[in-house]
Design a protein that fits this description.
There is one protein chain. The chain has 1 helix and 5 strands; from the N terminus they run E-E-E-E-E-H. With 76 residues, it is α+β, with helices and mostly antiparallel strands. A 5-stranded antiparallel beta sheet has the order 1-2-3-4-5, with helices on one face.
Length: 76
């Protein structure tokens, strides 16, 4: 499950996983050009992109987070 919170000071929307609700796994922010939104995944693959609206940017980010490969279990 992914939750999101918008920073009231910067307007950046941060996304958090239920496993660590204090560490953002991605974000969406508005570019200086108001018709562009940048999405960034902070996971291992560090995918990012640009979308025309915030809903599309959030959808791309959720897709990137959802496609993250499962971590391999440690070999003992």
């Amino acid at each position: 499950m992914i939750t999101k919170r918008r920073c009231p000071h910067t307007g950046i929307v941060n996304f958090f996983s239920h496993t660590d609700p204090l560490l953002a796994v991605g974000s969406v922010s508005r570019e200086t050009n108001p018709s562009h939104y940048i999405w960034r995944s902070y996971l291992d693959d560090r995918r990012c992109g640009v979308a025309a609206d915030i809903a599309a940017a959030e959808a791309h980010l959720r897709d990137a987070i959802g496609r993250r490969p499962d971590p391999k279990p440690d070999m003992i």
